[in-house]
């Protein structure tokens, strides 16, 4: 019997309670907004006593000339629960959910030197595309945008 089950977060309070898994504190409003957005999903790995030990978030995406696909937004596992199959179970559950939604692929990005993430994704069947480059706009307030 597994030490945890994977469940889909349905209520903001679930994500607030799982804040320790995220990069920063989860607000009720932020959680409510994320869960209400079409195509957004958060899955939690939860122990029988109700403790959340990992999460994966994804966004179903569709472009007019492509099949639907799942963007794996973020994956996190409590440090004490790493290397016990939690991440693999979360990735399998997100992949299964994506298939159920008609997605034909799943993708994500990570740092080139994040060996743990790359190994986890490879174990889950992903192929690393070394030719890809991510271009990021962190601030959209216009202050750092050069004049044209």
Detailed description of the structure:
The structure is a single chain. The protein is an alpha+beta fold. It has one domain (5-123): Gcn5-related N-acetyltransferase (GNAT) (Aminopeptidase, 3-Layer(aba) Sandwich), CATH 3.40.630. It is built from four helices and five strands. It has helices at residues 12-17, 28-36, 86-100, 115-123, and strands at 5-8, 40-46, 52-61, 69-77, 105-107. Strands 1-2-3-4-5 form a five-stranded mixed β-sheet, with helices on both faces. Strand 2 and strand 3 (52-61) form a beta hairpin. The chain is globular.
Descriptive key words:
148 residues, alpha+beta, Aminopeptidase, 5-stranded mixed sheet, globular, transferase, Bact_Acetyltransf, Acyl_CoA_acyltransferase
Task: Describe how the helices and strands are arranged.
Blueprint: E1 5-8, H1 12-17, H2 28-36, E2 40-46, E3 52-61, E4 69-77, H3 86-100, E5 105-107, H4 115-123
Parallel strand pairs: 4-5
Antiparallel strand pairs: 1-2, 2-3, 3-4
Q: Please name the CATH topology.
A: Aminopeptidase
CATH class: Alpha Beta
Average predicted local confidence, pLDDT:
92
CATH superfamily (homologous) name: Gcn5-related N-acetyltransferase (GNAT)
The largest pleated sheet is described as: 5 strands, mixed
In total, the number of domains comes to 1
Shape: globular
Amino-to-carboxy terminus distance: 60 Å
- Low-confidence parts: none
Query: What structural category arises from helix and sheet content?
Result: alpha+beta
- Please list the strands of the largest sheet in the order they lie side by side: 1-2-3-4-5
Q: Total number of helical segments?
A: 4
Instruction: Tell me the radius of gyration.
Output: 16 Å
The CATH architecture term is 3-Layer(aba) Sandwich
Tell me the β content: 15-25%
Helix content: 25-40%
Quantity of strands, as a count:
5
Keywords: Acyltransferase, Transferase
Organism: Isoptericola peretonis
Protein name: GNAT family N-acetyltransferase
Domain N-acetyltransferase: 5-148
